[in-house]
Amino acid sequence: MKGERSIGFAVSNDGLKEWMRLKEEPVFRPSEAKDLWDKRGVGSPYLVQLDGEERHRTILGCLLYTTKLVAKQEGLEDGFRVVINDGQTGCQSFSFLSVGSPA
Asked: What proportions of the chain, in percent to the nearest 5, are helix, strand and coil?
């Protein structure tokens, strides 16, 4: 929807540049409730598919390090959670990296 922010799915050959939105429909839409993470300047994030191959080492490291910085900025020094599901045995039903507080 034009002018509405949402989380979409994007792909890139190297995981670093030239990202392309896979399809126009959002994967997630903003919530209606006030003061949730998606109401606080998240911008226009995308879910990205990284297969954990050698070529993804740099971006995966950057994602995990940035997660730590954002957690500290958000006051989560006592702990936070990072979830990476990989493969059917790892309970992967959709390729994603999820970061959340234990609240």
From this structure: 25, 20, 55
Half-sphere exposure of 98 toward its Cβ, with a 13 Å CA cutoff? 11
CA distance 60 to 62: 5
Q: Give the pLDDT confidence of 24-45 residue by residue, as tens digits.
A: 766 556 566 666 555 555 455 5
Six token digits for residue 16: 């670093």
Q: Is the pLDDT of residue 20 over 70?
A: yes
Kindly list the distances between the CA atom of residue 63 and the CA atoms of 3, 11, 57, in Å, as whole numbers in the listed order: 27, 16, 10
Could you give the 3-state DSSP secondary structure of residue 42? coil
Average pLDDT, the chain: 67
Torsion angle (degrees, nearest 10) of CA 74, 59, 50, 96:
0
Of 62, 61, 73, 70, which Cα lies nearest the Cα of 99?
70
